[in-house]
Amino acid sequence: MNDEAEFRKLKWRCRRGMRELDQLFERWLDTRWRAASTEQRDTFLRLLDSEDDRLWRWFLGHETPSDDALRALVDDMRETPPA
User: Fold this and answer.
1) What is the domain extent for residue 65?
2) Three-state SS for 67?
3) Do 45 and 68 touch, CB atoms closer than 8 A?
4) Torsion of CA 83, 78, 56, 40, to 10 degrees
5) Residue 1 pLDDT > 60
6) Domain containing 7 — which CATH number?
7) Nearest-angstrom CA–CA distance, 46 and 82
8) Cα separation of 82 and 30, whole Å?
């Protein structure tokens, strides 16, 4: 699959049904995905597979992911300024 097709597919997967999560995911995708390392991309894909209620608790800071890579990505996504 070419990069642009993959990007469009990921854009669709970022739609979580909760506007705040949608914005966090899409902002990171738009500003960081293309420059991200393979490891960061893999972590982002794993994050997309997480349940929304768990994601919301992580992004609000009520819980933290036990996985170091997920924790780092959540922190980065929370700090990513709007494009």
Assistant:
1) 3-79
2) coil
3) no
4) 90
5) no
6) 1.10.150.250
7) 23
8) 9
Task: State yes or no: pLDDT of 83 exceeds 80.
Answer: no
For residue 64, what are the CA distances in angstroms to 34, 50, 69, 71?
26, 13, 11, 6
Total of domains in the chain:
1
pLDDT tens-place string over residues 7-52: 999 999 999 989 999 999 999 999 999 999 999 999 999 999 999 9
pTM: 0.91
* C-alpha torsion sign, points 59, 56, 51, 77: negative
Contact 36, 29 (CB under 8 A): no
Please give the Cα distance from 53 to 35 (Å, whole number). Answer: 28
Decide if 28 contacts 55 (C-beta within 8 A).
Answer: no
